[in-house]
Amino acid sequence: MKYNVIIKPERFDKFTIIPNYILRDKGISVGATGLYAWLFSHDSKQKINIEFIIGHFKENKSAIRSKLNELIDKGYLVRKRVYENGKIKGINYILHDNPLKSENLMTENLELENQPQSNTNINNNTYIESNISYKKIETKIYPHFVELFPTNFQPKSKNQKDKWIDCLDKIERIEKIKLSDLYLVVKHIRRDSFWNEHFLTLLKLRNKDKNGIKYLYRFLQIYKSANKPKSYYKIKGIKNYAIHVENGKEVLVAVTQNGVLNNFNLKQVLTDYEIKEILNWKKNA
What Cα–Cα distance (Å) separates residue 83 from each residue in 12, 52, 239, 242, 246? Predict the structure, then answer.
């Protein structure tokens, strides 16, 4: 079992060519771009941890953590905990050369089954299976999705209906997303004032926008962001939360406009329950 290593696309492992995508991203800082380039220059044999990274740069720990969190927020970096016998063994740093096209990134970090489902009329028992049969999608699942769309945009012919069912089948079978979760996402997006007029067919989910992102993953991200805990914004100037491992224990820290707040600082504002709530949300985010 490998841990505390850098993982990146194999085609970049024997030389350092920085993907253009991050270099053209106008929404990321110079510091985060430089840190990404430095991380990318290492091969998968390099042992790595936060101390190793901090030891290479003149910036302090807080500044480095802030840049790491920026890369995580943008989707260029995933820090994945490695467990052995139920205990944290280490953390791998997974680099993506184009996060917007890295579909595994979102599906791996998004667990919608833990989100509230009280507003849906679907019988969840219908959906807990994986690899649902095509026939079951047609008879028990498809009708619920159809009802989310205006009558004049619902499939009229058998050919149109088959395309919608095929879309659901591929999302469940290929994209590995539970259709119960997908229903909640579609329902949420259809209630949005903008998307209500621009998301009029289920087939759009597997289409791509001008940036090459499937709408399915854009909608998943919108849904996830909308289900943040109510206490999320109690920290002034909050940009993001992060999970750090200290002495083998996971603790929550906050990245704000003015710097990083450690777990002790958070406890001055948030209750233990609120911290736990955000921590659990972050694990599934």
Answer: 27, 21, 28, 18, 15
Burial 23-48 (b: 16+ CB within 10 A, else e): eebeebeeebbebbeebbebeeeeeb
The CATH T-level fold of domain 6-100 is Arc Repressor Mutant, subunit A (1.10.10)
Per-residue model confidence (pLDDT) at position 229: 81
Backbone angles phi, psi at 96, to 5 degrees: -115, 135
Nearest-angstrom CA–CA distance, 67 and 45? 23
Sign for the CA dihedral angle at 241, 193, 107, 182 comes to positive
Encode pLDDT of 104-124 as tens digits: 333 333 333 333 333 333 333
* Structure confidence at residue 1 (pLDDT): 60
Give the confidence band of 130 by pLDDT, cuts at 50, 70, 90.
Answer: very low
Mean pLDDT of the chain: 79
Helix extents (H) in 41-138 = 50-54, 61-74, 103-109, 134-136
Q: Where are the domains of the chain?
A: 6-100, 116-226, 234-284
Residue 132 or residue 129, greater confidence: 132
Distances (CA, A) of 212 to 102, 218, 246: 10, 11, 38
Quick one: average pLDDT of 67-77?
A: 83
Q: How far is residue 204's CA from residue 215's CA, in Å, rounded to a whole number? A: 7
**C-alpha to C-alpha distances, 44 to 2, 12, 51, 109, 224, nearest whole angstrom:** 10, 10, 17, 22, 31
Instruction: Give the DSSP letter string of 173-242.
Output: HTS---HHHHHHHHHHHHTSTTHHHH---GGGGGSB-TTS-BHHHHHHHHHHHHT--GGGGGSTTEEEEE
The token duo for 255 is 């990245």
Query: How much is the pLDDT for 16?
Result: 61
